[in-house]
Write a structure and sequence with these properties.
Elements: H1 7-32, H2 39-56, H3 66-86, H4 90-93, H5 95-119, E1 122-125, H6 131-143, H7 145-158, H8 172-191, H9 194-197, H10 201-218, H11 224-229, H12 234-256, E2 260-263, E3 272-273, E4 276-277, H13 284-301
Antiparallel strand pairs: 1-2, 3-4
Helix pairs in contact: 1-12, 2-3, 3-6, 3-7, 5-6, 5-13, 7-12, 7-13, 8-10, 10-13, 12-13
Length: about 325
């Protein structure tokens, strides 16, 4: 059956892509896991399925808080899958780190919300009007973003899809050029007139990666440049895949949620897949890189990650 470029046809296309993406990951997990899937993971799967059932029947408070509920369950499922693949996971071996990651995820996402105040690329509907309950929904949802990206990247990396390569030489000039490009990407949307800047949010999805990863490398923190210098490219590619996986799931679950976001940027509003214009899914790919580098920088600023001469830390 040929899919027409109607709203219903694009939703079907989105469901097919999302299902295919998840299926590939599940099959790879079934092929490669070395340990039993923990009970916490099965509980999270049941919670996710139950939340879906309650959401489609618009039963409160699940219908309104569906996004943070389902993403909390997702993080627990992926953490359990990492444990079954590798024998270790954040929740099992370092639950404090997972909690800290979720805590930092809130102010890190608020940086993008601050950009959105000027650029007006998305808005929210269905959020509780009561201040306390509305803030709870926002904070809980934002707290799941960084853990979802980084846990998914760990799972993808455990599949062994990406092999080691020759170490790359990281020069001071490369670091300076990346940082300069990143600062330019982050500055242009702020200083150009708003009617022009509203078209430039793509620069923000790339700017923090370019600006902060060289800084992390020079500080001796975990960094993708540091990985490259040791011949480890798997984390970089796994983050890209993680952005793709999480992007489709974000939009898939958001589409039916009672409290949700809508994209209102002034271009590409035709042929949406779920609520996202189709080309917008490419933005999730570099966003995953930003989640990693921003978390590392923020965790160092609050002294949760020490400086080291070995950029391979935070495995």
């Amino acid at each position: 059956m040929q899919l027409r470029y109607t709203s219903g046809g694009m939703v079907k296309l989105g469901v097919i892509i999302t299902a295919a993406t998840v299926t590939i990951c599940v099959l790879e997990f079934l092929r490669g896991h070395k340990h039993a899937f923990p009970r916490a993971g099965w509980f999270a799967i049941a919670a996710l399925a139950g939340a879906e059932w309650l959401m489609f029947r618009r039963i409160e408070p699940v219908a309104t808080y569906f996004t943070p509920i389902v993403w909390t369950a997702y993080v627990l499922i992926v953490d359990s899958a990492v444990l079954a693949m590798t024998g270790r996971s954040r929740l099992r071996n370092s639950p404090r780190d997972l909690f800290q990651m979720a805590l930092l995820s809130i102010p890190l996402w608020l940086i993008f919300e601050a950009y959105n105040l000027r650029l007006q690329n998305w808005d929210y509907t269905g959020v509780p009007r009561e201040l306390v309950w509305g803030l709870l929904g926002y904070a809980w949802s934002f707290a799941t973003i960084t853990p979802a990206i980084l846990e998914t990247a760990e799972l993808i990396e455990s599949f062994g899809w990406f092999k080691r390569r020759e170490p790359a030489e990281i020069s001071p000039a490369l670091c300076r050029n990346m940082m300069g490009a990143g600062i330019l990407c982050l500055g242009l949307p702020l200083f150009l007139p708003r009617h022009i800047a509203s078209y430039l949010f793509a620069l923000v999805w790339l700017g923090f990666y370019l600006a902060l990863d060289p800084l992390n490398y020079r500080l001796g923190l975990p960094s993708l440049l540091g990985d490259f210098s040791y011949g480890r490219w798997s984390r970089f590619y796994s983050l890209l895949v993680s952005g793709w996986v999480c992007g489709w799931l974000w939009e898939f679950w958001n589409y039916w949620a009672a409290a949700k976001w809508h994209y209102i940027f002034p271009i590409l509003q035709h042929n949406k897949i779920f609520e996202m214009p189709a080309p917008g899914y490419l933005g999730f790919i570099p966003f995953a890189l930003e989640c990693f580098v921003m978390y590392v920088t923020a965790a160092w600023l609050v002294r949760w990650i020490p400086r080291s001469r070995d950029p391979r830390i935070m495995e």
